[in-house]
Amino acid sequence: EAFVAPAPARWRERYAPACAACEAARTPCAHTRERPLKLLVCGHNPSDHSWMSGFSYSNPSNNFWRLLVTGEIIPKDWTAEDCPRLQRELGIGFTDAGTVPGNDAAKYDRKTMLAWRADLYARLRGHLCRVAAAERASDSESHGDSPGEQIQSSSSSSSSSSSSFTVEASARAAERGYGPAVVAFAGKRQYGQLFDRVPKRIETGKQEPDALPPGWPFRAKGEGATEVWVLPSSSGRAAMTKEAREGPYVELGKKLRGVAWPRTDHETRRERST
Question: H/E element holding 265?
C-alpha cells in the first residue's frame, strides 16, 4: 500500500486519487485505480507543514507550486490545496525519499539516507505492481472507464496474489512501461543519495539513462522508459538566480506537454505485441 502518515498528520503518498472517505479517515484508498503516471515528483521528506496539511510543498515559503505554474505544468490558479486533484486530472503523483516530517534536510545522515533509499525503492516497486494488477483487471473488463474512475483496488482484487507483489513482478511491470513517463526529483540531495558514492556534482534537467543510480526500479531505456529529471530545490532557503531556479521547470513543462493523459503508450505497445 502507498504510505499514509499516522493521525493526526494528513500527509500521504499520492500515486492515485484518494476518495473523500479514505482521505478523511487517513487510510490507504482501496477504491481508485493506480495508472501509469505522467509525472511522479519525488521530494526529500515532508516538511512539518506538509505532514500536517496533507499537501506536498504546502509551506508558504516554498516556491514549488509557483514553479509548476511557471513551467505550465499546472493551471495558473492552482495551489498546494489542489494537490489531491493532480493525480486524477493531470496524472501527476507525489512521493518523498523519506516518510518522516522535518524541515532540515541536512540533519539526515548518510546511514539514514541509505535506509530511505531501500524504502523508497520498495514503495516504487509496490506502485509498479499495483499498476500491473490494475491493468490485468482492466483487460478483463470494458475499456471505457474514465481516468480515476472508482473501481475495486488492484491490491484487493481477486486477480492479485502475493506473487504479484515481488521484486520480479515489479521488474516485469517496469519492462511493460507501467512506470511514470517522468520521475522528477525536486532537489539534488535526495537524488545524489541514491548512489553508492554520492556524486560530487549533479546537473539539473534530464539525467542520462546510462548514469542512473544502482537498483533504479523503473525502465531506463527503450519503449516505455521512465525519464529521470532533477529539478532545483524549491525551498525558499535555497539561494539561486531566478533563471537557474525556473529554467528546469520550464523545460520539464515542455517535455510533459508531449505526454498524453491518460497515458495510452503502454496500451499501444501491448496491442503491437499481441
Answer: helix 265-273
